[in-house]
Design goal:
Blueprint lengths: L6 H11 L14 H11 L8 E7 L10 H5 L7 E4 L9 H4 L2 H12 L4 E7 L4 H4 L2 H18 L2 E5 L7 E2 L2 E2 L4 H14 L2 E3 L1 H17 L14 H18 L11 H9 L8
Parallel strand pairs: 1-2, 1-3, 3-4, 4-7
Antiparallel strand pairs: 5-6
Helix pairs in contact: 5-7, 7-8
InterPro entries: RhgT-like, SGNH_hydro, SGNH_hydro_sf
Pfam family, one: Lipase_GDSL_2
GO molecular function: hydrolase activity
């Protein structure tokens, strides 16, 4: 009987039954079995909560030289989010500096009104100080803590660096990519393979065009304004591909998405 306790739920069933003048009390009597079948078919009457994105990671996500703000600036109300990513962060320093606690606090404070989605993208700095086993263990712990706090964890593989050798991108984050995917699969959470998608796009446009996304000359890791828009769009397209239910909360840019898909250099202003 609990599922029929709200007036909204009863109105929904009446609308499906095309009852113009509906005595909602009938749902507790004669038509209860039929009402139950309707709710089962439609998966309940309550709409899924809008997302609140909590972005965690290193400088390739952070405000400044990362893609994170491009995602947040493209969300549609009532969706929202916060970018907690920090330059130089690892899965260890992010915790020791209190940033991970901030992420979990945001989960707890938003989970009643939103689906609190924590995106987790590290690797660039972890590979300098941690073993792959340590990196994997840290990601797994983060996922578990997000779940325990009442949030949804999404792993994102590392944004590619844009350094070429013999005409191809040097894939020096592939081990971290594979480790992150393995952790996500084991934990049963979704992942966005940004590393593969960004590598594919950068290979398609070539070194000369890829360098146009450098935050400063010679910096083939961080992103300027155009780079943030382009690689932010890659993240958004990957996200919607994995979570179709989030599409209505994220502004589209079909022209930019198509250019990326076709491997054509884009400025982000399309």
């Amino acid at each position: 009987m609990k599922v029929y306790s709200s007036l909204r739920g009863r109105k929904f069933i009446c609308s499906v039954l095309s009852v113009k003048f509906c005595d909602y009390s009938f749902l507790t009597m004669k038509f209860l079995p039929l009402a139950a079948s309707i709710l089962t078919l439609f998966g309940g009457v309550e709409a899924k909560k809008s997302p609140f994105f909590i972005l965690t990671g290193d400088s390739t996500v952070a405000t400044g030289g990362g893609w994170g703000d491009a995602l947040l600036n493209s969300t549609k109300k009532p969706a929202g989010g916060i970018n907690i990513a920090k330059n130089g962060a690892t899965t260890v320093s992010f915790r020791s500096q209190g940033l991970w606690d901030t992420a979990l606090d945001n989960v707890k404070s938003h989970k009643k009104t939103h689906e609190a989605i924590v995106t987790i993208q590290f690797g660039h700095n972890d590979q300098k100080t941690l073993t792959l086993e340590q990196y994997s263990d840290n990601l797994a712990t983060m996922i578990g803590e997000v779940k325990e706090a009442g949030g949804t964890a999404i792993i994102i593989t590392s944004l590619t660096r844009r350094t070429f050798k013999d005409g191809k991108v040097v894939e020096n984050l592939s081990n971290e990519r594979d480790a992150a995917i393995a952790v996500a699969n084991k934990a049963g959470v979704k992942y966005l393979d940004l590393n593969t998608a960004s590598t594919k796009y950068v290979n398609a446009i070539g070194q000369e065009n890829a360098d146009k996304y450098n935050e400063i000359e010679g910096d083939r890791t961080h992103l300027n304004f155009s780079g943030k828009l382009v690689f932010g769009r890659i993240v958004m397209d990957l996200l919607v591909e994995k979570r179709r239910d989030l599409a209505r909360y994220i502004a589209t840019n079909k022209k930019l998405s198509q250019l990326i898909k076709d491997g054509i250099y884009a400025t982000g202003a399309e």
